[in-house]
Write a structure and sequence with these properties.
CATH class of the largest domain: Alpha Beta
CATH architecture of the largest domain: 2-Layer Sandwich
Radius of gyration: 20 Å
Strand content: over 45%
Number of domains: 2
Shape: elongated
CATH topology of the largest domain: Glycoprotein, Type 4 Pilin
Largest sheet: 8 strands, antiparallel, barrel
Number of helices: 1
Order of helices and strands: EEEEEEEEHEEEEEEEEE
Structural class: mainly beta
């Protein structure tokens, strides 16, 4: 599983692979660590990384997915993001006139268009499905508004940066 982790504003690419018996292979920015992770009591974990031992307390996540963590006495704000979700969220760009141009963030094929020109959409509403790397990626409206124009059709192949939909 690949994730983007932000710790107190510093972004890291993290890959997690579960092994056997509470052991994990964790790669952070290309550097691999073998980790023995055991929950001692609710939300309190003991980590053994090589010969180093750590005690980490993990709080509940808030509405934005941020988690307050504590390594010994030092507190940290941890935010976990799925890289694909981050890419898809970046597909909607607002311009100076307040319009949002929804662009393809990867090459793919348009599988389905869920809106028509003139339709009213709400922020986060699914508007298009793009197939990329054999996965269906639901593209959501980056803002509430009216679909001004649709620049692609079903079964169209698009390249990265291709204009898909404009919302005013």
């Amino acid at each position: 599983m690949e994730l983007i982790a932000r710790v107190d504003g510093r972004e890291r690419l993290v890959t997690l692979k579960a092994l056997e018996n509470d052991h994990f292979e964790i790669t952070i920015d290309g550097r691999m660590h073998l980790v023995d992770c055991r929950e001692r009591v609710a939300n309190l974990y003991s980590l053994l990384i090589g010969e180093d031992s750590y005690e980490v307390r993990v709080g509940d996540s808030d509405a934005r997915g941020r988690i307050e963590t504590q390594l010994y006495e030092e507190g940290y704000l941890l935010e976990i993001t799925d890289p694909m979700k981050a890419i898809l969220e970046a597909s909607g760009r607002k311009n100076a006139s307040g319009e949002a141009s929804v662009e393809a963030v990867m090459p793919g094929k348009v599988l389905r268009i869920a809106v028509a020109e003139g339709d009213r959409v709400e922020e986060g509403q699914p508007i298009l499905v793009l197939v990329a790397m054999k996965m269906e990626n639901e593209i959501e409206a980056p803002k509430s508004g009216t679909v001004k124009s649709i620049h692609v059709g079903v079964n169209d192949s698009v390249e990265t940066g291709a204009l898909l939909i404009t919302i005013a």
